[in-house]
Write a structure and sequence with these properties.
heterodimer; A: about 110 residues; seven-stranded mixed sheet; globular; B: about 110 residues; mainly beta; six-stranded mixed sheet; five-stranded antiparallel sheet
Amino acid sequence: ETGVTQSPTHLIKTRGQQVTLRCSSQSGHNTVSWYQQALGQGPQFIFQYYREEENGRGNFPPRFSGLQFPNYSSELNVNALELDDSALYLCASNPPNSPLHFGNGTRLTVT
Amino acid sequence: QKEVEQDPGPLSVPEGAIVSLNCTYSNSAFQYFMWYRQYSRKGPELLMYTYSSGNKEDGRFTAQVDKSSKYISLFIRDSQPSDSATYLCAMSPERDYKLSFGAGTTVTVRA
């Protein structure tokens, strides 16, 4: 048990729509990161939040945005969905000086 | 050229064999090196975490890092069918920040 819970587990959206994915971490996990894992590939870093502020971003366009809340939950929002956005979206968090632990992800399919 | 290269396999071994996995990388700024195991429909699970060069052993698992060659390895001794999974190497320049992953190697241990 990693203490990182993601919802929903699966989601189907149409191209052009918007989607919100949610993540819940344990108390004390001040850092949350989001990764995108395409089929057959390793996860790719989207962005990281620390104490509700964006703390770094990977090579993803601005239509990928996030929020982190004081209750250790967070959201990943994707606007104007494209077919290539179909992937497993992983949330990861960690308490200070401990390695990242991942949730089981949300499988997003864009048709 | 990808920043982290990992042979995707698949790799099939008999129960009890030694499994050898490796990754090469190009970014000399990487200081932290990890191995994750990912079962189907699950998120990555941290197996080994190493800082800089050297060896680390944990039960049946041994991780090696050779920064001079930009090469990391994971060895699994006395492999079990339950070890059948995809193994991902990951690395980062700062602790738990902006991990770069290999594409993963799929391993099957035959009973």
